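User: Modeling request: complex.
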Amino acid sequence: MEKTSPIMTLRSVAKTFGNGTVALRGVDLDIVQGKVHGLLGANGAGKSTLIKILSGAFKASGGTISWRGQPVSWDSPKAANDMGVATIHQHIPLVPTLSVLENVFLGSTGAWRLASVSRKRFDELCERVRYWPDPDALAGDLSIGERQMVSILQALGTGADLIVMDEPTASLATDERELVYATVRQLSKVENKAILFVSHFLDEVMALTDQVTVLRDGEAVLRAETSTLDETRLAEAIVGKQIVELERAAEARIGPSAASGTPRLELRGLSSPDKLMPVSLSVAKGEVIGVAGLLGSGRSELIHAIFGADKDAVGDVLLDGQTLARSTAASVRAGIGLVPEDRMGQGLVPEFEIWRNLTLPALQGVSAFNMLPQPERERERGEEAIRMLSIKASSPDILVRELSGGNAQKVTIAKWMFSDVKLFLLDEPTAGIDIGAKTDILRLIRKLAGEGKTVIIVSSEFEELLAVADRILVMRDGKCIAERNVHETSEHELLLLAGGQGPKGQAVNGSGKAAGH
Amino acid sequence: EEMTFGYVPASLEYPYNVQTAEGFKEAAEKAGVKVVVLDPRGSVEKQGNAIDDLLTQNVDGIGFLPLDSVVAESFVDKIDEAGKPVVAIASQVGDPNTRAVDDPYPKLSAFVATDNFKAGYVSGEMAAGLLPKDRTAKIAIVEGDPAYAVVKLDTDGFKAALDKAGANYEIVAAQPTNWTPDEGESVCQNFLTAHDDLDLIFSQADDMAIGCARAIEAAGSKVTLIATGGGSKLGYDAIKNGEMYGSVCTRPRLLGALMFQSLLEAATNPDTPKARYVTYDMPQITKETLDSCPEQW
Amino acid sequence: MGVYYALLLLIFVLTMITTYLGQENYLSIQNLTNVIYQSSLTSIMAVAMTVILITGNFDLSVASVAALAAAVLVGNADAMGFWPAVALAMTVAMALGLLNGSIVQFVGINAFIVTLGTMTAVRGLVLIYTDGRSLSVKDPGVIAQMKAFESGKNDVFLLVVAAGIVCLALGIGSVIKSRSSGKSLRPAAVGTVIGGVILLLLALASGGELVVRTPVVYMGIFTAVVWFVLSFTMVGRRIYAVGGNSEAARLSGINVLRYKLMAFVLCSGAAGFAGVLFASRLRSINPAGLTGAELTVIAAAILGGTSLFGGAGSVIKTLAGALLLFSLTNGFNILNLGANWQGLIEGIVVVVAAAIYTVGNQGRAKGH
Amino acid sequence: MGVYYALLLLIFVLTMITTYLGQENYLSIQNLTNVIYQSSLTSIMAVAMTVILITGNFDLSVASVAALAAAVLVGNADAMGFWPAVALAMTVAMALGLLNGSIVQFVGINAFIVTLGTMTAVRGLVLIYTDGRSLSVKDPGVIAQMKAFESGKNDVFLLVVAAGIVCLALGIGSVIKSRSSGKSLRPAAVGTVIGGVILLLLALASGGELVVRTPVVYMGIFTAVVWFVLSFTMVGRRIYAVGGNSEAARLSGINVLRYKLMAFVLCSGAAGFAGVLFASRLRSINPAGLTGAELTVIAAAILGGTSLFGGAGSVIKTLAGALLLFSLTNGFNILNLGANWQGLIEGIVVVVAAAIYTVGNQGRAKGH
Ligand SMILES: Nc1ncnc2c1ncn2[C@@H]1O[C@H](COP(=O)(O)OP(=O)(O)OP(=O)(O)O)[C@@H](O)[C@H]1O
Ligand SMILES: Nc1ncnc2c1ncn2[C@@H]1O[C@H](COP(=O)(O)OP(=O)(O)OP(=O)(O)O)[C@@H](O)[C@H]1O
Ligand SMILES: [Mg+2]
Ligand SMILES: [Mg+2]
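Assistant: Request completed. Predicted assembly structure:
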């Protein structure tokens, strides 16, 4: 173990929030130049809080931070930026009304807004990351994955010595992830920068980091060189107990039971102008369909079109043989539930408590006379959800705004667990969810399928799809380009298909048909 | 025993209203009577509320400047029911379309007012002497806020005087304002652009005339400007400087004093007749007769 | 809770000053009922405004709509009778709300600019309809009906006693419950207890007879209904959700459009009702009637802590906000404060009241 | 771009009607310069309001601040001379802006309610200061200075020609560039070309002499400076960032507080300047002067497409919004339209203009 003096050291950093939540109870951390330091922990362990403190966004309630050996006390993110700390925050804060270019250089100094050097520097950055977003697109029009990439460019643009990345890959698909890995390696190994990297993907952590610190309940429980660890040890340290890997036990899976009879869901020429080519599909009861694809391939569009949330979509959606009216209200009434990809923007009401968010789609179930919601019953439901998905919250009265990212994500899933939902549409349901809970959620999906529910799940982690799905659709450029039975495919094939280099696959039933129905 | 009178003007943001209140207070001070002045800020509801509040305070008489002639009837009824004398000032109580100015609402103790028809009439007389005799004269009118009854009275009086003088004229434009100089300026500017052969502009108040004078000056026009509802300091200056030909002397201060007088009579002498009409003379103000109007409010 | 403190503080200060100056006591029943009566029309509109603000919209046109409803009522009552004219006025008002809402939701224009436009346009309609003159009701039968509808007096002594007892009971129950369950005291519980005490004190002070005018009763009923719907029904929950995050609400299967439209219709309907009361009170309408009232209405709602960005607000607090504003003017009148100083003081009180509210809330949720 | 279309459409319609009715042509140079002159004070305030809206705040107090500045100027000019009085008035105005901003940013109260409060309070100060009387300037020397400051005429023919050529060149350059690089035509480029053509046509129509009054020149300079700062400098970008997502701005090291405060000071400063111009024009001030102007100012900004939620807005479009509103009133005067119909038409035009804007924009970004 070579002895280099750390670029940043944290000593017994603590944080207690205004609402009494103790997020950090004295954490030590050493970040070394030229190394990638992994910061791990279950949802709500305090990772984002720690990062906000060391980047100057929050003030710590106790402890010291030293930067290059000098104790510092940031009083603003600017102070940290100026010293050379750049941060990619978990809930990517971009300015929706400015262009990508301007967002990337938001913090830069200089007198001119449209300086041509910034365009040049932008091109250089893109070159470095090998990702080329449209510099003139408005940030508000980007999908969540694209925003994530822009925020990475933003952090690189500052030329900082320490780059902090809070779950940069949670909303990315495989290709973009590879870009991030390459960038991280380049930064640490070639440019000798220090990197603090947060992720819930253990493989990623194993492959990328040199050292790791694991947080549990606001305390550092493990500090080690990555090379001395393996995934199981890590997982154990994170969750605090042994966890069983959800095997790709496809054989053990009971296939869709009621393949005969009316299918649960039928799509007939469902399409949306400029976003989705016509799709026809039939899904049985108890079947889990995985949707694979890259960033911007139209997976979310497909889900929204099915749910009736896309006003421009045309085509028929039949649930149990009944054609659905094209509105979200009708879909929910018929028994469809949607977990959207942007939890804060689309999934939750930030100023509502956990329990009021939970019961929103199914108020009847907790109401007297089908009219008057009963807060007591709703709170009970909140308690139940907290137990069931192990949400880290002291009570259901916590505002979801104050939850950690992964816990908020769990609330968006829990919203649909208490009513008679027949078809679940899950758009990246495990984004930002820790390894323990992820397994629980995947099990939950299988259990739902076992109960005869139908699930359509979008995930950028193909491994995850292979673990839960019965059938996998691959999308590219708004088209369903292939359909595979889970037994007959592999992660490798899916990757090739999604990237557009795959072997000519069998066309999805009807993707070749005209939009007519 | 000490007496207290209340007064509710329309809005003390307007100098005219302030002057009525000043005149009222001054007269009361001389007579040793306490006064309460409540400002309803131009809102009819607040005027009603203020009157309620005065009744709660059990004052010995109430004067008010009706913001709405028709609504004012119910206020008068209410005060009268409470057994207090009530005097209206400046603006009529009762629908001006059906009730003559000099026939006050019967429950009023007195109605103290500038006769707005007459105010318009005096302007009209002044205008008649200024118009060209050889052709049809073109006149434009800068009106006040269309929601105010005086707007119609001023115009009617103005026309009546011109007709009586046998003037040959045409009113080519009449546009509303919100009684402010800035709107007076825009309206006149637009008049001068749309009609470059205007002979005379009649403004329904000194305030708009001030703005109008700026527009005339800027356009280098020769049009004659006269106003009514005048006697203000600003109007005085404008006439003195030749920016405006003339205006009509109205005297809010005097009105205030007259209102106090009427209230005092009604409150001290139960035999005072009701529904008296109290007014005063309104001379023209021109450069020559600048000092015929004693108040410069 | 801030707005309640601010209101109590203001009333306390006014009482002290009037007592000190040896004037008519501010706290007299007569005066308090006056204040409530004076604020009733504004309160009705402010309660509905709160709902529209909660859904994340805005309505500047309320005062114009109220004026139009009043004009329609006054203009038609003689010919068609009181009740049909009321129905017509309410229909017109609600149709305008639907129009506002449809433009905002279907064309997608910002509610501020739409209702600024309709505020001007509807005021224009009032001018056209009245032809710039004051209209008034002539028919004695109609006048009698209007008086019955608006000027009646109602003894609400028993009602106030009952409400006070209920508040007290609920509040104390909730306090005991949180004590026994070891949770921290919820301020709402304390507030309910204090509210109950105040109501009972009021009843006590009135000496067995508490007469209020009919509009106060209407206001009470309307507020109670809206409060009930917002606090205890599914509709209310959805209204908050729609304003809190309309996209999340939509994806939870809520018909966002319907709730947003409904709020517009409610707001214009309340404005129309206020207009009807206004017209019945004055039995006449002048084309400039109620001008500028929208700002007071919105100020009452915002003083009550309603968010301009939707998702939060309480009609009871709005009521307190309205009472605060009217106590102030009433206080000026009672104190015979020079007109010149009123504006300054009113402005300062509004800011201070909002500050009490905001600072009081900052303990709970820390913003940046 | 919608607001430009709406403005052009309105001018076109007015021109058609005046021509049809055989009246003085609406499109005469005389009349156009009139409209611009009439809108100049409002435009100055609206441009600054745009900045404050971009930063995500709001200012209802502009008209009151302008009135106070005017009163301070008129009240002191005789005693202390014109320029010192102007300096005093501007200082007072900007201090009020700082006060507004400080309350909003440090206490954390919503800008709407703060500036509603200061609007009332400052109007109260005007009343106290003027004691309810109109003030006027007596000193002939001061009057002469005021005339020189406000009522001068300036031939801007060459300026307009120059601006036209520059616009045309920039626009065509940008069109060619996007052609050659194969990108789709940016509407801004086309707009610049059209703007350039209009300016040149205007110059042509004027026949070599284009006289405008001094306030128009001030407005032009002020708008140009603000436009330049917003569009081309880092300060401008930060202003947009602060309004678009103040948390993101803070995390990027932008001093959010400073920019938000600066916008308040700018807005009140512009209001103060408008007040100075107003006072110089009329050489007198009445306590109710400029009442209600804030709504026109805000309407102009919003008609120009400025977002009420911050982060977006353009001062040139605001200018078009102001011109739209004033063209309308001017059109009413030129057509001598009866007072009754004006409100209705004005309201409808406002909504239609906003609709043109919104629908025009919907191709670009789909909202829900
Ligand atoms: N603004 C806040 N106010 C109150 N509590 C907060 C706030 N932000 C976070 N918390 C709490 O602090 C704890 C730590 O949260 P943090 O966001 O640091 O978790 P995390 O480790 O990043 O989790 P995740 O993996 O889900 O992102 C959680 O219990 C959370 O509820
Ligand atoms: N609001 C929008 N405006 C414009 N284009 C959009 C918008 N939302 C999505 N798109 C575009 O539509 C395409 C499909 O996006 P979609 O979000 O469905 O992809 P996805 O496969 O779900 O990818 P992601 O992982 O980013 O969610 C993308 O090219 C995206 O840029
Ligand atoms: Mg986190
Ligand atoms: Mg997606």
